[in-house]
Give the backbone structure.
Amino acid sequence: MASGDETAPRFTICREDDPVPAALAGAVAGIGNFDGVHQGHRILVEAVRAAAAETGRPSAILTFEPHPRVYFAPGAPMFRLTPPEARDIVFRRLGLDGLIVRRFDAGLAATGARDFVTRLLRGDLGLSGVVVGHDFHFGRGREGTPTLLSALCAEAGLSCRIVAPVSLGAEAVPVSSSAIRQALAGGDVARANALLGYRWFVMGQVRHGDKRGRTLGYPTANLALDACGLAHGIYAVRVRLPDGGMRDGVASYGRRPTFDDGAPLLEVNLFGFSGDLYGCEIGVELVGFIRGEERFPGAAALIARMDLDADEARRQLRADRTPSMLG
């Protein structure tokens, strides 16, 4: 299944049981779950592109759906930093030739390490080489280690590169999906975005709400976010509209304690926008955290605080220089 945009016209997505297309034949592929597609993952992507360029092969990512954690514990909520639709957008922007998605099911979970390499990587997918992180495990019961992968690839005639751990800044903060989740859970958008290397974003369909925002002078586009671990509070945001345009705004994520304490919603007010977005899919990037969610004594006090929040959001947006994956 081919897919592309102006930033990556040759990007090809091969989903689940689709045969590998000619555009990705003999690819060098980075393998992993890639939740977050963070700075460490981007070092891996650069290694994939370099290895592919050395041999004149396509560069790709191999990942799996559903996420293994979801497969093994289907009832447990999981805060995914980059669900499939967001992950596809990010990889499309990183200069790869394509993405290969394979189904994680009982058959794959029971596949031994050797068969994973010989039957899946070399046989079914026809890869010429792989790149993995230092902590990559694979095969039945996670029996495969990077060292074993390197040995099995050598036997199978595949190249294999292992990427070392990546840390950030003078304090050498380890870059990981867990660290990003922790930052977002604490409202530390700046840290999360630094670990990602771009503004963290969510995507969703605008749904009807109680339209209370209109009566407060702040009409909102409302999104329900599945199993989201983001701290409840107020954020400066940038929003990609269905036509591809970007708008600044201020958003609230939480239960609206002044009114109903209902299910968590992301409610986005777009500055200067008056169109109808109901039923449309939008992308919302977090630029900065403004404050935690609060209960106010009434609508007047809430409006006064919302005015201050909007001013602070505009200030943060003017100062922001973090790269975007949507704009």
Summary: Residues 299-319 form the longest helix (21 residues). DSSP finds ten helices and 14 strands in the chain. The first strand starts at residue 12 and ends at 14. The domain at 176-319 is CATH 2.40.30.30 (Elongation Factor Tu (Ef-tu); domain 3).
